[in-house]
Design a protein that fits this description.
Elements (H helix, E strand, L loop, with lengths): L1 E13 L3 H12 L5 E3 L13 E5 H9 L9 E3 L1 E6 L5 E5 L9 E5 H9 L7 E2 L2 E8 L4 E7 L2 E12 L10 E18 L5 E7 L2 E8 L2 E8 L1 H9 L2 H12 L4 E3 L5 E10 L3 E2 L2 E3 L5 E2 L7 H19 L3 H29 L4 H16 L1 H13 L6
Parallel strand pairs: 1-2, 1-11, 2-8, 5-13, 11-19
Antiparallel strand pairs: 3-7, 4-7, 5-6, 9-10, 10-11, 12-15, 12-16, 12-17, 13-14, 14-15, 17-20, 18-19
């Protein structure tokens, strides 16, 4: 094994997933070089079957770096929001905002491929194992192993863009005591580019159009998710049908997976010459599909500030201040929805129904919620 001398880069990004790649490409568009490192081979992302819900605002950003996967994206033209065994519902329609779609559903691998095609050959050190991170007054030194070679990289800014905040000091953790069961199903009749958010006492049930299928996020308490994961396909479809209702029928469930749901918020986004963005800064409940879009906005706003103000600590302070409203607003929005709707308490059910009815009858209130979902706190017109 050989060892190299110290290499210098302005911006080093840990994580070559979509958030890290978005930051790298946005910086490159403005003339700022950066280097991506990732523990996985870059083509490993092509094996990732997950579906992502992207807002129209995210599309607008990704189009600016020529990384929008047009052919792979299924548009969401309407969103139907309701509660199980209770009155009240609202429908959000893209025509109210003169948009081609409210959002889109894209496979993780397709978005990654759209971003990766724009990367230079030397933009990523894939398959890298980080050995040590040492923060200094002016630089951060990162020691890693890449292709059996030890490399020492000194950077003016280290960006953490991959991973989930752990149970450590400086991270606030709230356990929803819910698991998300993920799979794809075939609907009859077809989805007609409509997404469904169905609130149940067990947690929200989301159906997202993806090609001819629905990508579903079936939220349940842990013990119920254990039981659902153990069901055969016919029994699983019956459980899904019972939770959703009879507006349509489902068939042909794909492979199921699940993960526990937490709200994790890093108290401070910056420390010295390091900054945390995307899931490393916050992980949200998947209700309303806010988390990944928030990460894309993190990357974009960091790039804007670094390009305008330069790579220094004062720019990082401005970045942290600029992200406060968006990240806290998104966390508050998703958290309160989950806690208000994931129960069968009679008075709350009545209040929820009245709230959904009010959204349906009061366009300004509905537009506020819709624009928050599409553009975040920036709420672009």
């Amino acid at each position: 094994m050989t060892e190299a001398a110290i290499e210098h880069v302005d911006v080093l990004i840990i994580g070559a997933g979509p958030v890290g790649q978005t930051l790298h490409l946005a910086l490159a568009a403005g003339g700022q070089k950066s280097l991506l490192i990732d523990r996985r081979p870059l083509d490993a992302q092509q094996d990732d079957p997950r579906a992502l819900a992207l807002s129209h605002g995210a599309r607008q950003l990704l189009e600016q770096i020529e990384s929008w996967p047009t052919r792979a994206a299924t548009p969401i033209e309407t969103i139907h929001v309701s509660q199980k065994d209770g009155f009240g519902r609202t429908v959000i329609d893209r025509n109210d905002y003169k948009l081609p779609a409210l959002g889109y559903v894209v496979r993780y691998r397709d978005l990654s491929a759209a971003l990766s095609k724009n990367l230079a050959a030397d933009a990523v050190l894939a398959g890298s194992e980080i050995i040590e991170i040492q923060a200094g007054d002016e630089y951060v030194d990162v020691t890693l192993r890449h292709q059996d070679v030890i490399r020492h990289i000194r950077t003016r800014l280290l960006v953490h863009a991959e991973g989930t905040p752990g149970d450590q000091p400086g991270v606030t953790v709230s356990d929803y005591v819910q698991h998300a069961v993920i799979c794809e199903v075939t609907p009859t009749p077809g989805h007609n580019k409509r997404a469904w958010e169905r609130f149940t006492p067990d947690g929200p049930l989301a159906l997202l159009p993806l090609g001819d299928e629905f990508s579903i996020v079936f939220t349940l308490p842990p013990e119920k998710s254990d039981a659902v994961m153990a069901l055969d396909d016919d029994a699983f479809i019956a459980a899904l049908q019972k939770q959703f209702g009879q507006r349509m029928t489902f068939a042909k469930p794909g492979k199921r997976s699940r993960f526990p749901l937490y709200l994790r918020l890093r108290d401070t986004l910056t420390k010295g010459n390091e900054v945390w963005i995307g899931n490393t800064a916050q992980t949200l409940h998947p209700v309303s599909g806010q988390g990944f879009n928030l990460g894309i906005r993190d990357a974009w706003q960091l790039a804007e500030i670094l390009l305008a103000d330069g790579v220094d600590r004062s720019a990082l302070a401005r970045y942290a201040a600029s992200r406060k409203l968006d990240r806290q607003g998104s966390a508050f929005f998703t958290d309160k929805i989950v806690r208000a709707f994931s129960n069968d308490f009679g008075p709350l059910k009545l209040a929820r129904g009245l709230g959904l009815l009010a959204l349906d009858l009061c366009p300004p209130a509905r537009h506020f919620v819709a624009k928050r979902m599409i553009w975040g706190a920036r709420a672009w017109p």
